[in-house]
Design brief:
Blueprint lengths: L2 E5 L3 H12 L3 E5 L32 H11 L3 H8 L1 E2 L6 E2 L1 H13 L4 E4 L11 E3 L7 H11 L4 E7 L2 E3 L9 E2 L10 E6 L1 H13 L12 H4 L8 H5 L26 E7 L6 E4 L8 H8 L10 E3 L2 E8 L1 H4 L12 E3 L9 H19 L12 H11 L25 H21 L2
Helix pairs in contact: 1-11, 2-11, 2-13
């Protein structure tokens, strides 16, 4: 009998188990709760959500909405169950958390192809397996993961700078170039005058920080985690602290041959130049504050943020070194990873990774070729980003329009452009899926 083991019954693991079972695969689903609890869970139910609106927007003008439509077309257990237990929330997919989790749990428990094992899995299972244990992976399984991913590719802190959409940057307010002219011009430099810099620093040091939650990086961590000092903490050390740090202008000259007073560098986040990382700007500011403060920089006046800076404890792997776009391990092909462990960020994104990992684990177990979804789909581009991002600067990513291939021909107008992305994604998925 063909069987696959799934470890973890969060959103990703639950979805993976369902996809496997629906394809006739016998599934052994490990979930350590309620025998072993975690700080983030209240019950022993599968697919437990933190709040009722955790699944986000359903609008086709949102990247999350497009991803949900793709998952619905692919018969996602999580999306189907969420819609059955939906509560009013405007354009968001909000659910009754208790009823939703109960329903997912019951469907998996009652599936004839799924065996539930309520105990901690402390080692990588034999045979084909999907590991979907999330950021709260138990210490013993974490040690096992170190062996298959290599310890240097397993991270425990998500200390990330914001990422902005390339098309929202004002390129007339900056210039391309590497420091001292070394290397290729992979950086876009956003210069600031003395007045602009001082206004930015004042806003930065007085901006409101997000409250610390259990598992977040606290002040005590920063003494040993100096390389990821929040930019606002650095700025409080003195008005010129940033000019001697991430905003230093040394080695940079503008097109007129002058050195700016201060410079924020944007680093290409992907080869298509649709996403940029704000170099050295890891931060704990509230998301609204990040918008307000960073948009004081002239080149970023209209910047659209696709991922905000965060600083918290988070277990995830350096996926570009470890995974293919199928969520299959490059070196251990019988092992598939899913969920936040892979660097996808968000509940729906975790669900999507679980769906694709489950489908591909089933195909692998049956001797079939694993699938890479088309790049034009949101799921395909998310999986591609996870597998093909710069491994030297990899950080978790959510679904956003910036990871999709650019439209050809381009579409003007933000709303029309998003609708065009959505239509292309769904049309491509329909053609691809019906052709299998």
């Amino acid at each position: 009998m063909t069987s696959v083991t799934v470890v973890g019954a969060g959103l990703a693991g639950s979805e993976a188990a369902w996809q496997l079972a629906q394809r006739g695969i016998q599934v052994r689903l490990y979930e350590m709760r309620p025998q072993v609890t975690t700080p983030a869970h209240e019950t022993g139910h599968f697919a437990e959500l933190v709040c009722s609106n955790s699944l986000g927007s359903v609008l086709e003008t949102s990247a999350g909405g497009v991803l949900k439509m793709e998952l619905e077309r692919l018969d996602s257990l999580i999306i189907r169950t969420a819609k059955e237990h939906r509560v009013p929330a405007g354009g968001a997919l909000a659910v009754d958390r208790e009823l939703f989790a109960q329903a997912v749990t019951e469907r998996l428990q009652n599936h004839p192809k799924i065996e539930i094992i309520n105990e901690e899995c402390t080692a990588i299972p034999e045979g084909v397996a999907v590991i979907a244990t999330g950021p709260l992976t138990s210490p013993r399984l974490t040690e096992a993961l170190k062996e298959i991913t290599r310890s240097e590719n397993l991270y425990f802190y998500d200390a990330a700078a914001p990422i902005v959409l390339g098309e929202s940057v004002d390129y007339d307010k900056g210039f391309w170039g590497a420091r001292y002219g070394k290397g290729t011009a992979d950086y876009f430099n956003c210069p600031l005058t003395k007045e602009e810099y001082e206004e930015f620093v004042e806003a930065l040091v007085t901006a409101e920080e997000a409250p610390l939650h259990e598992g977040d990086l606290g002040e005590e961590d920063l003494t040993v985690f100096e390389g990821c000092m929040p930019i606002e903490v650095m700025a409080r050390r003195g008005k010129d602290a940033l000019r001697y740090g991430p905003f230093k202008p040394v080695g940079l000259t503008d097109p007129e041959g002058k050195r700016p007073y201060a410079v924020l560098q944007l680093r290409l986040e992907n080869t298509e130049a649709t996403l940029f990382n704000l170099v050295g700007c890891q931060t704990r500011l509230k998301w609204g504050e990040q918008n307000r403060v960073f948009q004081l920089i002239p080149a970023l006046r209209s910047a659209e943020f696709v991922r905000y800076g965060v600083m918290h404890r988070n277990t995830f792997i350096n996926s570009p070194k470890v995974l293919n776009a199928s969520f299959q391990c490059k070196d251990e092909q019988r092992i598939f990873l899913a969920g936040q462990l892979t660097g996808v960020e968000g509940y729906v994104e975790s669900t999507a990774s679980g769906l694709l990992a489950g489908i591909n684990a089933a195909r692998f177990a049956l001797g079939q070729e694993v699938l890479a979804m088309p790049r034009e789909t949101m799921l395909g581009s998310l999986a591609h980003y996870i597998a093909a991002a710069d491994p030297g600067h990899f950080q978790p990513m959510n679904a956003n329009f910036g990871i999709l291939p650019v439209l050809d021909p381009p579409v003007r107008g933000k709303k029309d452009r998003k609708l065009a992305y959505a239509k292309r994604a769904l049309d491509t998925l329909e053609s691809f899926w019906t052709g299998l």
